[in-house]
Design brief:
The chain has five helices and five strands. The chain is an alpha/beta fold and 150 residues long. It has a single domain, classed as DsrEFH-like (Hypothetical Protein Ychn, Chain: A, 3-Layer(aba) Sandwich), CATH 3.40.1260.10. Strand 3, helix 4 and strand 4 form a beta-alpha-beta unit. It starts with 9 loop residues before the first strand and ends with a strand. InterPro entries: DsrEFH-like.
């Protein structure tokens, strides 16, 4: 949601490629958005894989979960335990109006293969650190709130 009259916003810099870290960033973002906070997720580094299109989706290529399992296996474990899956959380963030940004520098740093593309089922803005800071910081449209690095 983007109601600036509500509680302070939340800005998350998602740079780790670890599945559990990216999954939990989506947990935090979707919960914040559901409680009427303005949310900005800024993906960079190996976390950018989470937003890559493909079959399977790019998040399957994230680094192993903290328990050593593959992202797909960990996601299946979460689903079996009644927890939100990666796809459910990403969809919730998008539906609840979270701003999802990808770092231009991060995309270049990954040296992605020709033909790569971002998911088309989630609105993603491309920008740099200055764009993110303007979106998420006190000078931007969001009320100042915590900035977390995941």
């Amino acid at each position: 949601m983007s109601d600036d009259s509500g509680p302070g916003g939340l800005a998350l810099v998602v740079f780790s490629g670890g599945f559990d870290r990216v999954h939990y960033a989506l947990v935090m973002a979707s919960a914040a958005a559901a409680t009427n906070r303005r949310v900005t997720l800024f993906f960079t580094g190996r976390a950018l894989l989470a937003l890559m299109a493909g079959d399977p989706p790019g998040w399957h290529g994230l680094d192993p979960a903290d328990d050593g399992s593959t992202p797909a296996a960990r996601d299946a474990t979460f689903a079996a335990r009644g927890l939100a899956t990666f796809e459910e959380l990403l969809s919730a963030c998008a539906l609840l109006g979270a701003t999802i940004m990808v770092c231009e520098m991060g995309l270049r740093a990954l040296d992605l293969p020709e033909g790569w593309r971002l998911r088309d089922d989630v609105t993603v803005q491309t920008g740099g650190v200055v764009t993110f800071l303007n979106e998420a910081g006190p000078q931007g449209t969001a009320k100042a709130g915590p900035m977390l690095f995941v």
